[in-house]
Design goal:
Helix 7 packs antiparallel against helix 10, helix 10 crosses helix 11 and helix 11 packs parallel to helix 15. By secondary structure, the chain is an alpha/beta fold.
C-alpha cells in the first residue's frame, strides 16, 4: 500500500512537471530548437576548411613558365587570383584584407629555369590568420610540385627546379595566440555587453523593484542611462584590461592607435549594450532573457565572428548573417589594429555599421521602456 502511494505521488509530480514544461515556451527552445540549430550549424555551416583563397599575382618575369604557372594558380579550385602591377599595390590589397596572399615571380624566374637553375617563387601570406596562411602555403607548394612534374623537362629531380619561399606578414612567427587573443577580446566584450545586460530589466521585474522605479519621478531617459552607463564603464575597463594583458602577457603586437582602439571599442560596446537592453526590456523573465542573450549574442560572437572559424569558408547564407553581426566587424578591426595598424579602409565601414546598429537598438530600447505596468 505504501509503495503504491509513493508511486502515485511520484507519478503526480512527474505529470505536474511535464505540464509545466509544456506550458513554458523556453523549454521548446532548449530541448528542440537549440539542438537542431547547432547540429545544422556545425554540420553544414562551420568548417575548418579554407574555402577559396584570394591571391594577388605579381609577375615581374613575364616569360612562358611564369605565365603558365600563374594560369595554373588561376584555374585551381583553391585560389582566386588577380594580377597587380607592383608590390605597392599588392601590399595595399593585403593590408586592406582584399587578398590573403601575394604570389611573386621575380624578374629572373624564366631565365633561371631555361638555363637549368633553381627558380625563386615567393609566396607572401597574411599571418594574422595562421590557419589560412598555412593553407595558402601548403596548397601553393602542392600546385607548384604538380606543375613542375608535367611542365618542366625531367620532372622533379633530387633538387626541385622551383624553390617556393613562404613569408608571413603581420605575424612573422605565425603564432596562433596572436590570432586568437583579439578574437577572445571580442567574445569577452560581447559577454559583458549583451549577455549580462540582457538580465538588467528582467531582474528588476522579477524582484518587483521595477514598479517602485516607475513610481519615482525619473524619466525614461534617466532609466535608460542609469542602466547603460555602468555597463559601458565595465566594458571599457575590461577592454583596457584585455588589451594590456594581450600585449604584456601574450606578446601580441599593438601596431595601431590607442585612440582608435578606444573609438572602436566604444561604438561596439554601445551596439552590444543596445542588443542586451532590448532583450531585457522586452522579456520580463531572467531565464528567457539569458537564453535570448546567449543565443543572439554570445554564441554568434563565438562561432560566426571569425574568432575560430574562417568566415570565407562558410556557406553564402551564413556569410550574409555574419555581415549583420557587430562582433564580426569588431573582431576584424581588433585583429587589424593589433597586427597590421590603422587601416581606415576596414575601420570606416565597420564604425558606420556598428554606430548605425547602436542607434537603432538604443532607440528601440527607449521606445519600449514605457512607464506603465500593463505593457
Amino acid at each position: 500500500m505504501k509503495q503504491n502511494l509513493w508511486l502515485r505521488q511520484l507519478l503526480a509530480l512527474v505529470r505536474k512537471e511535464f505540464q509545466q514544461i509544456v506550458r513554458d515556451p523556453s523549454s521548446y527552445l532548449v530541448a528542440g530548437v537549440l539542438p537542431f540549430v547547432f547540429l545544422l550549424l556545425f554540420g553544414y555551416g562551420i568548417t575548418l576548411d579554407a574555402g577559396i583563397l584570394r591571391l594577388a599575382v605579381l609577375n615581374e618575369s613575364g616569360g612562358r613558365h611564369s605565365l603558365d604557372l600563374a594560369a595554373d594558380f588561376a584555374h585551381s579550385p583553391w585560389f582566386s587570383t588577380r594580377g597587380v602591377s607592383g608590390m605597392d599595390e599588392a601590399a595595399r590589397l593585403m593590408r586592406d584584407s582584399e587578398v590573403q596572399g601575394i604570389l611573386v615571380f621575380r624578374q629572373d624566374f624564366d631565365a633561371t629555369l631555361d638555363r637549368g637553375g633553381v627558380g625563386e617563387l615567393q609566396v607572401l601570406v597574411d599571418g594574422s590568420e595562421p590557419n589560412t596562411a598555412q593553407y595558402i602555403q601548403s596548397y601553393s607548394q602542392g600546385l607548384v610540385t604538380r606543375w613542375q612534374t608535367t611542365a618542366l623537362p625531367g620532372g622533379v629531380a633530387a633538387e626541385p627546379p622551383i624553390n617556393v619561399q613562404p613569408r608571413f606578414w603581420f605575424n612573422p612567427a605565425a603564432k596562433s595566440v596572436q590570432f586568437l587573443v583579439p578574437g577572445a577580446i571580442t567574445v569577452i566584450m560581447t559577454l559583458i555587453g549583451t549577455l549580462l545586460t540582457s538580465l538588467v530589466f528582467a531582474r528588476e521585474w522579477e524582484r518587483g523593484t521595477m514598479e517602485a522605479m516607475f513610481a519615482t519621478p525619473v524619466s525614461r531617459m534617466q532609466l535608460l542611462l542609469g542602466k547603460l552607463i555602468p555597463y559601458f564603464c565595465m566594458g571599457m575597463f575590461s577592454m583596457a584590461l584585455c588589451a594590456t594583458a594581450a600585449v604584456l602577457l601574450f606578446a601580441v603586437p599593438f601596431r595601431g592607435s590607442l585612440w582608435i582602439l578606444l573609438l572602436l571599442s566604444s561604438v561596439f560596446m554601445l551596439s552590444a549594450l543596445g542588443q542586451g537592453l532590448l532583450i531585457s526590456v522586452s522579456l520580463r523573465g531572467q531565464l528567457v532573457a539569458a537564453e535570448a542573450g546567449l543565443f543572439s549574442g554570445f554564441l554568434p560572437a563565438l562561432l560566426l565572428s571569425g574568432f575560430v572559424f574562417d568566415i570565407n569558408s562558410m556557406p553564402p547564407a551564413l556569410q550574409a548573417i555574419t555581415r549583420l553581426l557587430p562582433a564580426s566587424y569588431f573582431n576584424t578591426c581588433l585583429r587589424t589594429i593589433f597586427l597590421t595598424g590603422d587601416v581606415w579602409a576596414i575601420f570606416a565601414p565597420s564604425l558606420a555599421f556598428m554606430g548605425l546598429l547602436a542607434a537603432i537598438l538604443l532607440g528601440l530600447v527607449y521606445k519600449n521602456l514605457v512607464k506603465r505596468l500593463d505593457v
